[in-house]
Design a protein that fits this description.
- The complex is a heterotrimer of chains A (138), B (93) and C (116).
- Chain A is of the alpha/beta class.
- Chain A has helices spanning 22-35, 66-76, 85-90, 96-101, 119-127, and strands spanning 8-13, 39-45, 81-84, 114-116, 130-134.
- Chain A has a five-stranded parallel beta sheet with strand order 4-3-2-1-5, sandwiched between helices.
- Chain B has a five-stranded parallel beta sheet with strand order 4-3-2-1-5.
- Chain B has one domain (6-92): DsrEFH-like (Hypothetical Protein Ychn, Chain: A, 3-Layer(aba) Sandwich), CATH 3.40.1260.10.
- Chain B starts with 5 loop residues before the first strand and ends with a strand.
- Chain B contains three helices and five strands, in the order βαββαβαβ.
- By secondary structure, chain C is of the alpha/beta class.
- Chain C has a single domain (3-48, 55-114), classed as 3-Layer(aba) Sandwich (Hypothetical Protein Ychn, Chain: A).
- Chain C has helices spanning 16-29, 61-65, 79-84, 103-106; strands spanning 3-7, 34-38, 74-78, 96-99, 111-114.
- The radius of gyration of chain C is 13 Å and the shape is globular.
- The two termini of chain C are 21 Å apart.
- In chain C, 45% of the residues are buried.
- Classes of the chains: A alpha/beta (138), B alpha/beta (93), C alpha/beta (116).
- Chains A and B meet through helix 1 and strand 5 of A and helix 3 of B.
C-alpha cells in the first residue's frame, strides 16, 4: 500500500514533556495530519525537546506517558524521530553508540528515536511542504 | 474562504513578551491561531486584531473558555492542519 | 527558500539563543540562505565587550562576528528593542543592521523560526 500523499510535514518539538505542552500539541497535530492522508516526513527534537526521547520517563499511571505515546505513533506510521545530537548530549540523552564514544555508564534513548545532527532539520525544512515548531509556552 | 498570507500560531499567554511581539507582526492579511496558553487572549478584554482569528478548541475547552470564542473561530486539530496548509507560510511563536 | 531565525531571549540565562545560532549556522553550512533577527531582550546578544568566563560560559560575540564568514546573510536587530536596551552603533558589535521588526519584514522570508 504505497503512500502517495504529496503533502508532507516536518515537526520540530523544542518543549520538554511535563514542563511544557509542546509534545502533546505536536502529537495531536501529527495524528490529525496522518488522518487527513498527509505524511509526516520526520519529527525533530531540539533543545529541551530531546527529553521526549528518554526511555526512562515513568509518570504516575493515571498520567499520559508522552515519550511512550510518541514512540508508538512513530512506530505505527513509520515516521523517523530524530533528536538533535548536540542538544541530546548536553542534556544526557544518549544511544549506545554515544554511550561507548563518551564512556558513559548508560544509554537511555527510547526506540525508535535516533540521534543525528541539525542537517536532519535543514533537510526536512527544504523537502517538506510545511515545517512547524512546537515550543514551550510560559 | 479568504486566503491567509501568514498563519501565526501563538501559544504564549497575553503577559508573555513574545505574545506582544507576535501581535505587532500580524498583518490584516494574516491569520492568528491561538493554542496552549495563547487561548487566554479569549478571556482578555481586547481580542487581538488579526485578519482572521482562530482558537484551538481542546486548549480553549481545557481552560474553561470553550464558550467564549468572541469573533474567534474554534478549530480542532484537523482544522489546524488545514489552516497550516492554507496559509502561504506559518510562524510558530 | 530564505529563512529568518528569530532570537528574543536574553543571553546567558538560557541556551535557546545559542541553539538558534546553531540553526542559522547549520542552514548556511548547507548553502541555505539564512538571516538572524534579534528582538526584545534578545538584542543584548549584540552588545560589545561580553566577558562570560566568570559564569563559566563562552562569549558568543566571536561566533556572531564570524557569522558573515560562515555565510549568514544578515544580522538584523529590532531598532526599538535596541533603543530600550541602550544599544547604538557605539555599543553594538560590528555587522548589525537595524530594522523595524514588523509584518513587512516577515514577508521577505519564506520561513521564520525560533529555536524554542
Amino acid at each position: 500500500m504505497a503512500e502517495t500523499a504529496s503533502v508532507t510535514f516536518t515537526l520540530v518539538i523544542t518543549g520538554a514533556p511535563y514542563s511544557s505542552q509542546a509534545p502533546q500539541t505536536a502529537l495531536g497535530f501529527a495524528q490529525a495530519a496522518v488522518d487527513a492522508g498527509h505524511r509526516i516526513d520526520r519529527v525533530f527534537l531540539y533543545g529541551d525537546g530531546v527529553h521526549l526521547a528518554s526511555a526512562l520517563c515513568a509518570p504516575p499511571s493515571d498520567e499520559t506517558n508522552w515519550s511512550e505515546a510518541w514512540s508508538q505513533f512513530l512506530a505505527d506510521h513509520s515516521v523517523p524521530g530524530v533528536a538533535c545530537i548536540a542538544s541530546a548530549l548536553r542534556r544526557g540523552l544518549v544511544n549506545e553508540t554515544e554511550q561507548k564514544r563518551y564512556e558513559l555508564p548508560a544509554a537511555n534513548l527510547r526506540a525508535p528515536f535516533e540521534i543525528a545532527g541539525l542537517g536532519e532539520w535543514v533537510e526536512g525544512r527544504i523537502k517538506s511542504t510545511r515545517t512547524l515548531y512546537f515550543h514551550a509556552g510560559d | 474562504m479568504t486566503a491567509i498570507k501568514t498563519l501565526h500560531i501563538l501559544n504564549k499567554s497575553p503577559d508573555h513578551p513574545r505574545a506582544a511581539k507576535c501581535l505587532e507582526m500580524v498583518s490584516r492579511e494574516d491569520g492568528l491561531l491561538l493554542i496552549g496558553g495563547g487561548v487566554l487572549f479569549l478571556a482578555a478584554a481586547k481580542l487581538p486584531d488579526a485578519g482572521k482569528l482562530f482558537a484551538l478548541s481542546p486548549d480553549a475547552d481545557a481552560r474553561g473558555l470553550g464558550h467564549l470564542t468572541g469573533n474567534a473561530s474554534a478549530v480542532d486539530f484537523n482544522g489546524m492542519v488545514a489552516l497550516s496548509l492554507q496559509a502561504q507560510r506559518v510562524i510558530s511563536w | 527558500m530564505s529563512t529568518l531565525i528569530m532570537i528574543d531571549q536574553p543571553p546567558y540565562g538560557a541556551w535557546t539563543g545559542r541553539e538558534a545560532l546553531d540553526m542559522a549556522f547549520s542552514l548556511a553550512a548547507f548553502d541555505q540562505p539564512a538571516s538572524l533577527l534579534f528582538t526584545g531582550a534578545g538584542v543584548n546578544w549584540l552588545r560589545q565587550a561580553q566577558e562570560a568566563g566568570g559564569i563559566g560560559q563562552k562569549s558568543v560575540e566571536k561566533n556572531l562576528s564570524a557569522a558573515p564568514i560562515f555565510g549568514i546573510e544578515a544580522i538584523l536587530a529590532d531598532r526599538s528593542a535596541c533603543n530600550t536596551y541602550g544599544l547604538d552603533e557605539n555599543s553594538l558589535i560590528e555587522g548589525v543592521t537595524l530594522v523595524d521588526a514588523d509584518a513587512v519584514l516577515l514577508t521577505n522570508y519564506d520561513h521564520t523560526a525560533f529555536a524554542g
